[in-house]
C-alpha cells in the first residue's frame, strides 16, 4: 500500500534525494568508497559543501556579508549558541510555543531577556501581534513556524532591531528577506535533509560584539573561519541537503515551493472547515502551511482513535498530533505531493460519510 508520510520531522524528503543519497552511500562519485567511509577532507567532498553553500545563497537570495554553516547539535544547541554569540545586555523574544520558550530559557543565562508577548494562555493557538520590541535589544528572536501548534509567520516582520529566527520547520517554503536577520537557523530534518545537520545563516559583521569568552565550538566565527570543517561535519546529511537544494532549484525555487505549500494547505484547511467532524486548532490568520493541526469536533470526540485507525489503514503515516496538543497534525513539507494531501482529504470525507 502507498504510504503518505505526514511525519513532523524527521519527515518526507523528495524521492530523488533519497535515491541519489542511497547511491552515494554505496559508491560515492565512482570512487569505490561509500559516502559513509570517506574523509570530510577528501577532495571530492569539499565541492559538496561549496555547492550546498552556494545554493543556499542563491535560493534564499542571501546578500553579501553572510555565511552559511552546517553544524551539529540541532536547533536546540542554537538556542544557546545564539545568546552566547549575540546577547551582550538585552534580548527580546516572542513566545509562540515550546521551541520559542526553550530558546528563551537558554538566553536568560546570558543577559536580560524580555518576553515581548506570549500566546501561552491559549496553548499557542495564535501568534501575538500587538507588542513593542525594546529599541535597545541586541536582537529580537522569533520562531517563524511553530511545528507543534501549526501557526506560522508567513511574512518577515518589520521591527526596529535585527531579528534572529528559528526556521527549522519552514525554511525554503517561502522567499525571505535575509537582510532583516542577523542569524537564521534550524534543524535540517524537515524541509532539507535527514536529521544530523543544523543550518545557520549568520551576518558576519554582527559577530564579535559580545565581551564574554565563547568556547571554541560554540563560536560561530570558528565555523566561519573553517568553512564548517573545524571538526568532522555530518557528511551524509550534508550530501542529502545538497540533493534537496538541487531539487528545490529544479522545481522552480522557493517561490514555487510557496505556491505549492499554499495550494496544499488551502486544500486541507478547506476540508477541515467543511467537514463537520473536524475542527482546526490554529487561529485562521496564523494557520501554518507546513503543519496543519486539527481535532475531532466536540460531538465526535469519542471517534478520535477510530479515525486514526481508519486513516492508518489507508496509508496515512504520522498524523497523530503532538503529545502536548492531541488530535491530528498533518505536516505538509515541500516534498509532500498534492496527491497525498488529497488522499488524506478522501479519508476524512469517507469517514464523515460513515459516521456523520
Ligand atoms: C521550530 C523548531 N525548533 C527547534 C526544534 C528542535 O530541533 P532539534 O531537534 O534539531 O534540536 C524543532 C524540532 O522539531 C522545531 O520544530
From TrEMBL:
<dbReference type="GO" id="GO:0030170">
    <property type="term" value="F:pyridoxal phosphate binding"/>
</dbReference>
<dbReference type="InterPro" id="IPR022278">
    <property type="entry name" value="Pser_aminoTfrase"/>
</dbReference>
<feature type="binding site">
    <location>
        <position position="41"/>
    </location>
    <ligand>
        <name>L-glutamate</name>
    </ligand>
</feature>
<feature type="binding site">
    <location>
        <position position="189"/>
    </location>
    <ligand>
        <name>pyridoxal 5'-phosphate</name>
    </ligand>
</feature>
<protein>
    <recommendedName>
        <fullName>Phosphoserine aminotransferase</fullName>
        <ecNumber>2.6.1.52</ecNumber>
    </recommendedName>
</protein>
<dbReference type="GO" id="GO:0006564">
    <property type="term" value="P:L-serine biosynthetic process"/>
</dbReference>
<dbReference type="GO" id="GO:0008615">
    <property type="term" value="P:pyridoxine biosynthetic process"/>
</dbReference>
<keyword id="KW-0808">Transferase</keyword>
<dbReference type="InterPro" id="IPR015421">
    <property type="entry name" value="PyrdxlP-dep_Trfase_major"/>
</dbReference>
<keyword id="KW-0663">Pyridoxal phosphate</keyword>
<keyword id="KW-0718">Serine biosynthesis</keyword>
<keyword id="KW-0664">Pyridoxine biosynthesis</keyword>
<dbReference type="GO" id="GO:0005737">
    <property type="term" value="C:cytoplasm"/>
</dbReference>
<dbReference type="GO" id="GO:0004648">
    <property type="term" value="F:O-phospho-L-serine:2-oxoglutarate aminotransferase activity"/>
</dbReference>
<keyword id="KW-0032">Aminotransferase</keyword>
<comment type="pathway">
    <text>Cofactor biosynthesis; pyridoxine 5'-phosphate biosynthesis; pyridoxine 5'-phosphate from D-erythrose 4-phosphate: step 3/5.</text>
</comment>
<comment type="pathway">
    <text>Amino-acid biosynthesis; L-serine biosynthesis; L-serine from 3-phospho-D-glycerate: step 2/3.</text>
</comment>
<comment type="subunit">
    <text>Homodimer.</text>
</comment>
<feature type="modified residue" description="N6-(pyridoxal phosphate)lysine">
    <location>
        <position position="190"/>
    </location>
</feature>
<feature type="binding site">
    <location>
        <position position="147"/>
    </location>
    <ligand>
        <name>pyridoxal 5'-phosphate</name>
    </ligand>
</feature>
<keyword id="KW-0963">Cytoplasm</keyword>
<feature type="binding site">
    <location>
        <begin position="75"/>
        <end position="76"/>
    </location>
    <ligand>
        <name>pyridoxal 5'-phosphate</name>
    </ligand>
</feature>
<keyword id="KW-0028">Amino-acid biosynthesis</keyword>
<comment type="function">
    <text>Catalyzes the reversible conversion of 3-phosphohydroxypyruvate to phosphoserine and of 3-hydroxy-2-oxo-4-phosphonooxybutanoate to phosphohydroxythreonine.</text>
</comment>
<feature type="binding site">
    <location>
        <position position="99"/>
    </location>
    <ligand>
        <name>pyridoxal 5'-phosphate</name>
    </ligand>
</feature>
<dbReference type="InterPro" id="IPR000192">
    <property type="entry name" value="Aminotrans_V_dom"/>
</dbReference>
<dbReference type="Pfam" id="PF00266">
    <property type="entry name" value="Aminotran_5"/>
</dbReference>
<feature type="binding site">
    <location>
        <begin position="231"/>
        <end position="232"/>
    </location>
    <ligand>
        <name>pyridoxal 5'-phosphate</name>
    </ligand>
</feature>
<feature type="binding site">
    <location>
        <position position="166"/>
    </location>
    <ligand>
        <name>pyridoxal 5'-phosphate</name>
    </ligand>
</feature>
<dbReference type="InterPro" id="IPR015424">
    <property type="entry name" value="PyrdxlP-dep_Trfase"/>
</dbReference>
<comment type="similarity">
    <text>Belongs to the class-V pyridoxal-phosphate-dependent aminotransferase family. SerC subfamily.</text>
</comment>
<dbReference type="InterPro" id="IPR015422">
    <property type="entry name" value="PyrdxlP-dep_Trfase_small"/>
</dbReference>
<feature type="domain" description="Aminotransferase class V">
    <location>
        <begin position="5"/>
        <end position="344"/>
    </location>
</feature>
